[in-house]
## 1
Amino acid sequence: MSIIAEGACFRTHPLCVREKAMFATDNIFKTICLICAGLIGLLMIGFFVQLAFSSVGAWKEFGLAFLWSSEWDPVSEKFGALPSIVGTLLTTTIALVIALPLSFVSAFYLVDLPVAIGKILSQALDLLATIPSIIYGMWGLFILAPIMQNYVQPFMVDTLRLGDIPIIGRFLGEDYNGFGFFTAGLILSLMILPYICAIMRDIFAMTPPMLRESAYGVGCTKWETTKDIVVRYGIRGLLGGVFIGLGRALGETMAVLFVIGNMTQLPSALFDSGTTIAATLANNFPEAAGVQQSVLFALGLILLTMSFGIQVFAQWYLNTTSAKRGEER
Amino acid sequence: MALSIVAAMSAYGANITLNGAGASFPAPVYQVWTYAYTQITPDVKVNYQSLGSGAGINQIKAGTIDFGGTDNPLTLEEQDEANLVQFPMLTGGVVLIVNLPELKNKELKLDQKTLSDIFLGNIKVWNDPSIAALNPEVKLSNTKITVVRRSDSSGTTFIFTDYLSKISPEWKEKVGTGASVAWPVGIGGQKNPGVCNNVSKIRGSIGYTEYTYAVEAKLKCVTLKNKAGKFVAPTPKTFSASAADADWENAKGYYMVLTDTEGENSWPITGITYILIKKDAPDKEKQQALYKYFNWCLTSGANSASKLNYVPLPMNLVEKVQNDVLK
């Protein structure tokens, strides 16, 4: 070693030859890594370019008004994206509103449980995350939708009389048949819950015990410790979990398709049937031709832009607020 | 490139693979046929993917498959433009299914006006006076009507909306005919089984589907008033009565829509499902195998089609197709 370190390297020296060979493999490895990493970027750009290219017809035909037109008439070939966009945002919002508090609380509980029970429940949580979305869809169609129609919605409307309360009633709607935004949002919340919860659990577990114990040491209650130490320490990861859930909810197709009712109309209430971008694509793509096909590509572009925008916003938000949270840059 | 692969594949032994795709309306029969045919002719393998009529037309135009299935017929001009030949394969019925437990074993009767008004959203409850007037023997409750229709674009929808456009000027003006349309009301189910499933889940719902799917799902079918003014129940018998009304001699390129036909016992929403093939396929051996297969379907296959509640083509039409196309 010392010979090489001093720079007195002879070509014939065995160590020197080995080092050269190592350099060569290093370079090959580096090139392969570069190509693979570059491919990811290329794929991303490729998707955007391809979607933009294929949707030119739709943008030419309808202009930007496509974004806020709510018409959808395949017979006279008039299309607008608004019902699908609003439907996507609405189901995602419902899903997050239900899933966030639930996953936060259960993740927090999982970390502090006795090890044996915590392990079992954690495993169950990870298993939940691996259930394919089509299973959720089937379950939603065969079990959840009838339960919603026969028990939950009648209970909310007829027993609790939520429909008679002025603003909430307007928000819920009177007509219900088990299908619609509410059911779709509920299914979505169950689907994203394990993702968010698993990430939150890992983040909570990562908080150094010393920090927690110090907090208890100065007399903090459990809640104060959670709020000011654990959450603050892991906020980046927590938000990351939320955004992963959000991303999944935005693009989820099959489970939503089965229960949302597939009506291309603007929602006026939670119990209404509607559609999302992903559901519209899945319903119409195999048979679409001409203008409709490019309309669907345009919808795809909108969905991709939405997911991308959310990721960019998340990064931007985390970066601009990092100083406030006292994170090191 | 693709051609050389196909050539290489057909040169390899005598094995020929015929790939088809399209309409889901006749898919149950096509699947039985492909299986049975492979059993008796092991060197020819037939595949049929049930993707939907529109997909069948797109794929055969793009040349990715050897035959396409569609319920939505192409006119002769459209066939010539895409260099395709079209011929009928089967007849089947589109039926209305309802979920109304109070019907018990009685039937529900609807006429043209009530049917179109239900799908237009003008009639909202089952005990509407116009429905009650047609069904004096059934006590209908004020259950809300939930319309269920196809969410994907479909040849079944084409047949059904074609019928609604014929019987209702309001429907024709507001909605029109198409494989997917802007439905005034109703929730969407995925494909025929999706519609059946939604109807069986939602009380007070009405939907339309291909007859076989309704039979398999054990759903109650609606009796409809036909053009001759008679109430007819959907059965293979009324479907073939409707098929007998067809005037094939004057149907250019076999373009024929069998809705709202004149016959006294005709089911008003009968549909024909078609096969599309390339006019002059480069691979003659394959083309011959294709012809042989369809000849078999039209003759020996007719029996299994009847078993699945489809109506095979009448013998004179089969002969016409054999002489025109499959020679």
Note: The first strand of chain B starts at residue 16 and ends at 22.
## 2
Amino acid sequence: MSETLSAIPDYLHDGTTLRSWLFTTDHKRIGILFALAITVFFFIGGTAISIVRLDLLTPAGDLVSDDTYNRLFTIHGIIMVWFFLIPSIPATLGNFLLPLMIGAEDLAFPRLNLLSWYLYMGGATFTVLTLILGGVDTGWTFYTPYSTMFANGAVLTAAAGVLISGFSSVLTGVNFIATTHALRAPGMTWFRLPLFVWSMYATSLVMVLATPVLAMTLVLVMAERWLGLPIFDPSRGGDPILFQHLFWFYSHPAVYIMILPAMGVVSELIACFARRRLFGYSFMVYALVAIAVIGFFVWGHHMFVSGQSAYANIVFSFLSFMVAVPSAIKVFNWTATLYRGSISFEAPMLYAFGFLGLFTVGGLTGLFLATVPIDIHVTDTYFVVAHFHYIMVGGSVCAYLGGLHFWWPKITGKLYPEAWARFAAILMFFGFNLTFFPQFVMGYLGMPRRYHVYPPEFQIYHVLSTSGAVVLGTAYFLPLAYLLGSLWWGRNAGINPWKAKGLEWQAPSPPPHKNFPVPPHVPDEPYDYHPKEGPLAEAAGDVS
Amino acid sequence: MSDSAYLRPPWKNLERQHQAVTLGIWAFLGSEVLLFAGLFAGYSVYRGLHPAGFLAAGRETSIVFGTVNTAILMTSSLTMAMAGRTAKARLFHAARILLFATFALGLLFLVLKGFEYREDIHKHLIPGPGFPISVEGAALFFSFYWVMTGIHATHVTGGLVAVLRLIVTSRNDTAWLAGSGSQEATALYWHLVDMIWIILYPLLYLAGRTHG
Amino acid sequence: MAREKIPAKSFWKLNRDLVMTWAGLCALLAITCTLAYVPMGRGNLPVSLVIAAIKAALVGAIFMRLSDHNALNRLAASVGPIWIFIMFVLMGSDYFTR
């Protein structure tokens, strides 16, 4: 029996030609393809902002010109949002894990999955072209009428890049939705699904419904800029605020595309490393769906000072407070899961703890920003920049790295060096806070965002922030090095090095093409770290 | 019957595969509806802000082309629906003829659109220098006219490609029309393209007709 | 490949509801086109949109067979229109109160 099993090649060795990778329909390979692409973009986007932070060490704009400065922070935003964060967890971990976690052989539409990757690469090509053409200086938000009428830069290619990559999102979302409905293994009912699967489902709803609005908004920008059709031009009756409504209708839900998957990962990590079932599983599910839905109702909080009516401000402020409630429920439930748990501090758990703290700070500051009077004071300052970096980097990137480490043994069949990983996680936590906490302070004190030149009283904060960025950047290179290194020198992982629950841990490490040589056993409840019956339960005194 | 020949990995059951394809297409159609949503919203905002301009501009579109094209698209929806009905009844030859008819009608829609665009250009109905209507907002109407009809025509073209694929693939294996979920998926997409046009028609062709 | 011979009568029976729906759509098209020329002040737009909505509903219910589909597909089909409604209502909270 074992001879037959070991005769099945794992997905990494099942075909070694370039063709077998570029024409693969295996969700695991496609996940790897996405991972490679987003990693490249992460470091390009990181390089851009490193130059910005370097320049900001001094109040004068003495490293690069004003125009270059604007192009640098713009490309940082475009790359990080659309070419790193949005695809990061869904297209890499989601692609890899969704079929495994539900006991399926692949996604519902494997060829569509490959198309998603090619669409992403098509968009990526236009973005690289944008870089070659010297970039664009509108900010990642493309506000009109500057972007449509006055910006001198590669607006069209940048917009085209984002537009094309958006279709990648939509198709991934469609694929995930169909997969979750139709390919669950026998016994895997909806309320036995791991929270990561639920988070992929909720994220997919947002991807499918929000992304097309961005696509059309970019089409309108391109139509005005390229064809000269008046759409947002105020001198011909247009309303620039219409652009902002349409843009943020997508871009606010987009931030939930970036955080919901992270929340899914964190649930998996905390359950495993506290060795406890998630506290309040059903409410965690409802919270995911509630965030996805209510997230569509709050976009106007990006427009409090745009000229939007005061009544709209009230409506959007109230709704923004509402969307914080399910997020808070999740934070409470993760914390409650830790109570009486058997907690260990492997690297993935360190990232999960980092997430808990940093996401909470980011979330609370989001509430400050949702309060109209406060927002009027801190809008377009570094306070906002700090807020969203706490969520997107402190939250999403932390969770992505935590998930990458947690599932690395399953994906590659290798163990990473634990000591280095813990060191990197802790270094990252310090570097992150040193980079971004000073930004809260200087934002509150009035330092505007996107400014190349600033008054000298803010310099101390910028120096702290840039120092932090150096630490943070170093910390990011560590996993790049040791994770890659583990591919050659890492110890072989067994089938379940963490002794985690979840169907993915019943597949070999790494899994073969069709995932499960024997159909997986679906337990009665997810996260049954303390089963109610049997010797483990008796020993723990759990028997009722 | 070897309907299992139409089974594609990872599916083990043909009915499940079809159900998933149908759900997938409905999810995709949801995204398509949201694609046009931004255009509808923009149109509504500007019509509210510039009612006189929109009415003045609306009566310059060609009601003949617009109405005839609406009738053509609705008929193509009929032939598409009939193709699905007959394929399900395993009358595959009739189904293929109906798919041809759908393709032909869709192509006719695009051809007439081309003639209509030519006429519009001849009347200088492109915002910019030479635009004939000076009421504020009229140029905005026509921006939306060109973008809305252009994006819709792109979708019609995509639909034609999909219908053509059905026709070509079923050439040697007509039973494929029932065995695979492609026919139903294409049909649903085609009907949505028709529905979008049904909504566009009053917005672009019926505005301002009561004067002049 | 055998070309199926279908008597015209059973072909008609098979597709009768579809053809009737199409006839209804054409009638509504004629009505909406005619009404566009009837001065109704601000009523012209709502009337034409209501007729368009009825036509769209016919296409959805009968051509797309939504009435036959299971609840899940119907839910999926309704999400798009509901989200457009949300977009309009919340954008309206700005534009109607300026």
Note: Residues 70-98 of chain C form one domain.
